[in-house]
Amino acid sequence: MVNAMMNPMTAAMPSSSPATGMGMGMPVMAPNMVMVPRCTMKMEKCAGGIKITCMCDDPAACVMMQNLCTMMAGGMCSMCCTMNGMTVCCCNMTMGACKVEMTANGCCVTCTSGDKMCCDMIQACCDCMMMCMKSGCACCLMMGGTPVCCCMC
After folding, report:
1. Residue 151 contacts by C-beta under 8 Å, 6 or more apart in sequence?
2. CA-to-CA distance for 101 and 107, rounded, in angstroms?
3. What φ, ψ does residue 59 adopt, rounded to 5°?
4. Distance in angstroms (rounded) separating the CA atoms of residues 113 and 150
């Protein structure tokens, strides 16, 4: 009797049968896509690291961003700046502890470290991201690799 349960690997395999010698290539995966709310992003240095504030004027976008932040909190925080679809700079905040707080019109992410060298790296990432945004890049804040807000300055 054939088992009715679906194996995760079979769900990712192409539709041709492996018995025929066809379809033995790489599994086909669906892209991980999410609609990311546009916001106003402000980055500033604070004691021990940086503070990133994301604000949305649209109430629906604000709720969506807050829900994404709540779901992804605890994952690695990173920021990525792009220009004309190409990545200019990407900073992973692996050297600090990131905390997410909800505000009335968005969220506030604080990435800090008690180590002086790690703090310097976090603040250097802040300087780099601020310069990229001032120069026309779009900046995306991600948690666990999932974008939670995007800013076009």
Report:
1. 38, 39, 40, 41, 54, 133, 138, 139, 140, 141
2. 6
3. -60, -35
4. 25
pLDDT digits (tens, 9 = 90+) for 50-80: 999 999 888 988 888 888 888 887 778 999 9
For residues 148 and 61, give the distance between their C-alpha atoms in angstroms, rounded to a whole number: 11
Q: What angle do CA 135, 137, 142 make, to 5 degrees?
A: 135
Sheet holding 146-152, edge to edge: 86-92, 77-83, 138-143, 146-152, 38-46, 49-55, 106-112, 97-103
Contact 129, 44 (CB under 8 A): no
Q: Which two tokens stand for residue 58?
A: 């649209």
Q: CA angle, corner 127, sides to 101 and 37, nearest 5?
A: 45
**Complete DSSP assignment for 7-49:** PHHHHHS-SS-GGGT---SPPP---------EEEEEEEEETTE
Cβ pair 118, 109 in contact under 8 A: no
pLDDT in tens, 107-131: 999 999 999 999 999 999 999 999 9
